[in-house]
Every structure is written in structure tokens, then in C-alpha cells.
Amino acid sequence: MIYRVFYNLLCGVITVLCLSLSAHAVPWQNLTGEQLEQKLAEKFSAGEYSSKGADSCLMCHRKDEAVMAIFDGTHGMMNSKQSPMAGLQCEACHGPQGKHNRGGKEPMIAFGTDSKLSASAQNSVCQGCHNDPKQMAWHSSTHNLEEVACADCHTLHSAKDPALDKLSVNDTCSSCHTKEKADMNKRSSHPLKWDQMTCIDCHSPHGSMSESALNKPTINDTCYSCHSEKRGPVLWEHAPVTENCVTCHNPHGSVNEGMLKSRAPQLCQQCHAPDGHASRVVQEPGMDAFGGGKSCLNCHSKIHGSNHPSGSLLQR
Ligand code: HEC
Ligand code: HEC
Ligand code: HEC
Ligand code: HEC
Ligand code: HEC
Ligand code: HEC
Ligand code: HEC
Ligand code: HEC
Ligand code: HEC
Ligand code: HEC
């Protein structure tokens, strides 16, 4: 994995630095992503920044409200010397103007899901400023390795980035994660669909040291952070519960009650032999305590463990 990370970084650097002498006759709108990256690399090494900064760009882009919205957001502020507006302004992100202003002769760096540029090429721009230790987990994160761009989640030309708003971050995530979106709308789920809870209550969008980019070191620690009563210790443990909550639950939602992956008795019979209750009497299939709504749970109700001295069978 480390090698992959290195490779990505190297490519990011090379696309910016490497100089290609081949000239393209085709207009840049028709270039492939790779050709476009080469063209931009040439433009970078020529380094022709405009002398008027944003004013130069706004001669043409002022009428576009979406573009002007950058001045309502964090990156449009002048309050810190790290701010793009205190330096190269628009070109801090979109690269040097070069001959872009001469009849659109040359391309600019474009961002987001519509951009033809690779995620690593786009991200290297952001990482030029956002390289503090808080961003370290990003490099080995699945999002980085799967070529998700910063701007696939973040919107910069906006007063408020929807990814940073608790009421819209679930939409940001579920625009790609359609399976989880479907799950969270099922009969039983965490209150995600009402935005009372968010994906980032459990996951770190920039990656973490844990599996599935969880905020906490393990799955169970993640669950205990809200369901502390399930942490125990209990007198009589139920082994799968202490091991892994998602053996039985789907954290995103399920058609079964209690976000269970399947219902009893099937849920239990993945591990427990279907029989073994000597006294079991069946008059009519499905009508005894074994069938029907709660099935095994009619008797073994303390499924997460028992504190009763004689609760070894999780019955009390
Ligand atoms: C002379 C007019 C003109 C000037 C000046 C100008 N642009 Fe553009 N820009 C265009 C046109 C035309 C397009 C292509 C049509 C479109 O996408 O709106 C474009 C497209 C873009 C795009 C989208 C590129 C893409 O691949 O989709 C970005 C980003 C951009 N310009 C940024 C800038 C920045 C930053 C500056 C100042 C450094 C600037 N422009 C100056 C005319 C101009
Ligand atoms: C020229 C430097 C610079 C570049 C390039 C840059 N940023 Fe920023 N960014 C800043 C500064 C300064 C802040 C405000 C201080 C902070 O939160 O670190 C900021 C804040 C942010 C925030 C938090 C915003 C908020 O409202 O709290 C996000 C998200 C962000 N940047 C994403 C990006 C992304 C994505 C890119 C690449 C497309 C990018 N930045 C490129 C300098 C930059
Ligand atoms: C999968 C979506 C996603 C991607 C990809 C992503 N971010 Fe974020 N980012 C978020 C979310 C969600 C938050 C809010 C986190 C929070 O509130 O805990 C955030 C917060 C931030 C912040 C402000 C808080 C902080 O941690 O300082 C910055 C700056 C930032 N991201 C920059 C970036 C940069 C740079 C990249 C690319 C290298 C990137 N992000 C990639 C979703 C994403
Ligand atoms: C901090 C980085 C940053 C700065 C500074 C910045 N942009 Fe952008 N720009 C982006 C990102 C990221 C996008 C993708 C859409 C979004 O996030 O809002 C974008 C999108 C665009 C687009 C394409 C919009 C479209 O319709 O698809 C244009 C044109 C553009 N920017 C022009 C400018 C101009 C002009 C300025 C200066 C006034 C500027 N940008 C400053 C990062 C930046
Ligand atoms: C632009 C598309 C896109 C967006 C937006 C996006 N993701 Fe992802 N995410 C992916 C891809 C691609 C993968 C890797 C394949 C997969 O697991 O689906 C992934 C993987 C993940 C994983 C599994 C990580 C692992 O290491 O196993 C988690 C968790 C995740 N994303 C959470 C989020 C959250 C939370 C958000 C919103 C803040 C988000 N994603 C937004 C594309 C996206
Ligand atoms: C209550 C905590 C919790 C919330 C909220 C949550 N997740 Fe997860 N997510 C998990 C756990 C735990 C796993 C690991 C599941 C496993 O290993 O079977 C996971 C796994 C994932 C994966 C990887 C799936 C795979 O097949 O590898 C993705 C993608 C993901 N979550 C996306 C999301 C998105 C998007 C949201 C918001 C709609 C979200 N999650 C909300 C706990 C949560
Ligand atoms: C950020 C807090 C939070 C985290 C973390 C969390 N939960 Fe929840 N959980 C809730 C809330 C809130 C409810 C809804 C309670 C209610 O409706 O009374 C809930 C409900 C549940 C339910 C009952 C659902 C139903 O339909 O009755 C189950 C099962 C559950 N969570 C399992 C888990 C598992 C497994 C994890 C770890 C992967 C987890 N939770 C992590 C907050 C959380
Ligand atoms: C062996 C399967 C299994 C495992 C593993 C499991 N649960 Fe459950 N859980 C259930 C069943 C079955 C129910 C439904 C109980 C009922 O309907 O009476 C349930 C219900 C719940 C509920 C809602 C009712 C209540 O008791 O509060 C929460 C919350 C919950 N589980 C959290 C967790 C957490 C957290 C973990 C991990 C520590 C976990 N579960 C592990 C089987 C399991
Ligand atoms: C992932 C496997 C798994 C699942 C699913 C599971 N169990 Fe268990 N269960 C175990 C293990 C392992 C033990 C400990 C067995 C031992 O100590 O001999 C155990 C112990 C028990 C015991 C105590 C009996 C004893 O010998 O200590 C009962 C009762 C029980 N489970 C009922 C259930 C019920 C009811 C369900 C369904 C809601 C269920 N289990 C689901 C693995 C599982
Ligand atoms: C009518 C109440 C009742 C129901 C329903 C029930 N059990 Fe039991 N279970 C018991 C009793 C009583 C014992 C201890 C005496 C015995 O072995 O017959 C027991 C013992 C067990 C044991 C430990 C002994 C062994 O067999 O190794 C396990 C595991 C178990 N049950 C699992 C289940 C599962 C899985 C289900 C659902 C398919 C279930 N039980 C349904 C009452 C019940």
C-alpha cells in the first residue's frame, strides 16, 4: 500500500513538473485527461501568471454567479496570509492564466467530478496548502487510493460547503454510496435520513487508522461510543457480541427490526445447530415458541449478555 501511495505522490509531482515539447493542434476541450495534464504541466513551467490576479479572470467570469460565490466562502477571505486571495488569488488553485485569456486558447485546472484531470493532479493543488498533520491519514485512505478528489466532496465556490454542514453531509456521501443510501432508508435504521445522525459520526472522511475508516479503533468501540450500556462487563457474555456487533446488525439499516442482518431463528442458526432442545414439542410448525415473531428470543432474551447469576443461557 505504501508503494501505491508513493506512486500517486510521484505522479502528482511529475504531472506538475514534467515538460512535454509536443504541441497539440486540437482545442483543449477535446483533449483526453492525460493530454490535458501535459498541457497544464507546460503551462505551469512557463509560469505566466496574470499581473492583475482575480480582476483579470473576472473580466470574463464575473457574470457567472457560481464563480463569484468564492468570495462568500472561506477561500475568498483576505484575513490570513495563507489565503489564496492574499496571494495568487484564482490562479493559486486554477494555475497560471498563460494564454487562457486569449480566446480560450489554453486550458485551466478544473476540479470536481466533471474534471478530466486525475484526482491526484487535482488534489496536489489543495495539498499545496492543506498539508498539516491532520491530513496524514488521507494518504493511505481508501478514498485517496480509489482516486476520489477533494473537490468531489468539497464545494469551494459557495458561502457554505455542504460537506461541512451536518444537515447536508449525508447527501454528499450518499451521492456516491448508493448502497448505504438504500440501507439508511430501510424499515429500521439509524436516524440518518432525518440528518439527526451523520455518516461522519462513525466514519472519518479523510481516512483513519481503523478498518472501514472508522473514527474509533474497532467496530465495537464505535458502537459503544453511543450504546455504552452494551459495553459490559457482564457476568455471562455472548461471544459474538463482545467480538463484533455487525455480525448480527447492519449499521446502515435493514428491512428487519433492530437493524438485524437476518431474523431469528436464521440469525442464530448461522452458528447454533438448528436442534438440540430435547424438550422441544412441535404441534404445528411455526406456532410454538421457536417460530413466530421473536423465535429464539422468546426464551433467550438477554441476547447481549446477562448479569443474572443463573443467566448463563441468556434467558434472564
Ligand atoms: C477572455 C476571457 C477569459 C478570461 C480573462 C479568463 N477566462 Fe476562464 N474561461 C473562459 C472561457 C471562454 C472558458 C470556457 C467556457 C466555460 O467553460 O465557461 C473558460 C473556462 C474556465 C474554466 C473551466 C475550465 C474547464 O476545463 O472546464 C476555469 C476553471 C477558468 N476558466 C478559470 C479562469 C481563471 C482562474 C482566470 C483568470 C486567471 C480566467 N479563467 C480568465 C474565458 C476566460
Ligand atoms: C493557497 C492556499 C489554499 C489552497 C490552494 C486551498 N486552500 Fe483550502 N483553505 C485555505 C485556508 C487559508 C483556509 C482557512 C484556514 C483553514 O481552515 O485551514 C482553507 C480552508 C479550507 C476548508 C475549510 C473551509 C471552512 O469553511 O472551514 C476546506 C474544506 C478546504 N480549505 C478545502 C480545500 C480544497 C478542496 C482545495 C483544493 C481544491 C483547497 N482547499 C485549496 C487555503 C487554501
Ligand atoms: C469523502 C469526502 C471528502 C473528501 C474526499 C475530502 N474531504 Fe475534507 N472533509 C470532508 C468532511 C465531511 C469534512 C468535515 C469533517 C468534520 O466536520 O469532522 C471535511 C473537512 C475538511 C477540512 C476542514 C476541517 C479540517 O479537518 O481541517 C479541510 C481543510 C478539508 N476537509 C480538506 C480536504 C482536502 C485537502 C482533501 C483532499 C486531500 C479533502 N478534504 C478530501 C469530506 C471530504
Ligand atoms: C481555493 C481554490 C480555488 C480558488 C482560489 C478559486 N477556485 Fe475556482 N474552482 C475551485 C474548485 C474546487 C472548483 C469546482 C467547483 C466548486 O468547488 O465550487 C472551481 C470551479 C471554477 C470554475 C468552473 C465553474 C463551473 O461552472 O463549473 C471557474 C470558471 C472558476 N472556478 C473560476 C475561478 C475564478 C475566476 C476564481 C477567482 C475569483 C477562482 N475560481 C478561485 C477552486 C478554486
Ligand atoms: C465521489 C464519490 C464518493 C464520495 C462523494 C464519497 N465516497 Fe466514500 N468511497 C468512494 C469510493 C470509490 C470508495 C471505495 C469503494 C467502495 O468501498 O465503495 C469509497 C469507500 C468508502 C468507505 C470504505 C473505506 C474503507 O477503507 O473500507 C467509507 C467508510 C466511505 N467511503 C465513507 C464515505 C463518507 C462518510 C463520505 C461522505 C463524507 C463518502 N464516503 C463520500 C467514493 C466516494
Ligand atoms: C453507526 C455507525 C455508522 C454510520 C452512521 C455509518 N456507518 Fe458506514 N460502516 C459502519 C461500520 C461499523 C462499517 C463496517 C461494516 C463491516 O465491516 O461489515 C461500515 C462500513 C461502511 C462502508 C464499507 C462497506 C464495505 O462493503 O466495505 C461504506 C462505504 C460506508 N460504511 C459508508 C457509509 C455512509 C455513506 C454512511 C452515511 C450514509 C455511513 N457509512 C454511516 C458504521 C457506520
Ligand atoms: C453517534 C451515536 C451512535 C453510534 C456511534 C451508534 N449508534 Fe446505534 N443508535 C443511535 C441512535 C440515536 C439510535 C436510535 C435510538 C432510538 O431510536 O431510540 C440507535 C439505534 C440502534 C439500534 C436499534 C435500531 C432499532 O430499529 O431499534 C441498533 C441495533 C443499533 N443502534 C446498533 C448500533 C451498532 C451495531 C453500532 C456500531 C456499528 C451503533 N449502533 C453505533 C446512535 C448511535
Ligand atoms: C448475536 C447477534 C447480536 C449481536 C452480535 C449483537 N446484537 Fe444487538 N441485537 C440483537 C437482537 C436479536 C436484537 C433484538 C432484540 C429484541 O428484539 O428483543 C438486538 C437489539 C439491539 C439494540 C436495540 C435494542 C436494545 O437492546 O437496546 C441495540 C441498540 C443493539 N442491539 C446494539 C448492539 C451492539 C452495540 C452490539 C455490539 C456490542 C450488538 N448489538 C451485538 C442481536 C445481536
Ligand atoms: C456468530 C455466531 C453466533 C450467532 C450468530 C449467535 N450465537 Fe449464540 N453463541 C455463539 C457462541 C460462540 C457462544 C458460546 C458457546 C460456548 O461457550 O459454548 C454462544 C452462546 C449462546 C448461548 C449460551 C449457551 C451456552 O452454551 O453458553 C445461547 C443461549 C445463545 N448463544 C443463543 C443465541 C441466539 C438466540 C442467537 C440468535 C439471536 C445466537 N445465539 C446467535 C455464537 C453465536
Ligand atoms: C421455549 C424456550 C426456548 C426457545 C424458543 C429456544 N430455547 Fe434454547 N434453550 C432453552 C432452554 C430451557 C435451554 C436449556 C435446556 C435445554 O438444553 O433444553 C436452552 C438451551 C440452548 C442452548 C445451549 C444448550 C445447547 O443446546 O448447546 C443454545 C445454544 C440455545 N438454547 C439456542 C437456541 C436457539 C438458537 C434457539 C432458536 C432456534 C432457541 N435456543 C430457542 C429454551 C429455549
List keywords for this structure.
elongated; 316 residues; 30% helix; 13 helices; mainly alpha; binds heme C
Outline the structure in words.
The structure is a single chain. This protein is mainly α and 316 residues long. The chain has a domain at 2-121. 30% of the residues lie in helices and 0% in strands. It has helices at residues 2-17, 33-46, 54-61, 65-68, 90-94, 119-129, 142-145, 150-153, 169-174, 178-184, 219-224, 239-243, 266-269. The longest helix has 16 residues, at 2-17. It is elongated and about 85 Å long. 17% of the residues are buried. Residues 1-26 have low confidence and may be disordered. It binds heme C (HEC) (10 copies). Residues 188, 190-191, 197, 201-202, 219, 222-223, 225-227, 245-246, 249, 251, 258-259 line the site of one heme C (HEC).
Topology at a glance:
Layout: H1 2-17, H2 33-46, H3 54-61, H4 65-68, H5 90-94, H6 119-129, H7 142-145, H8 150-153, H9 169-174, H10 178-184, H11 219-224, H12 239-243, H13 266-269
Helix pairs in contact: 1-6
The structure holds heme C (HEC) (10 copies).
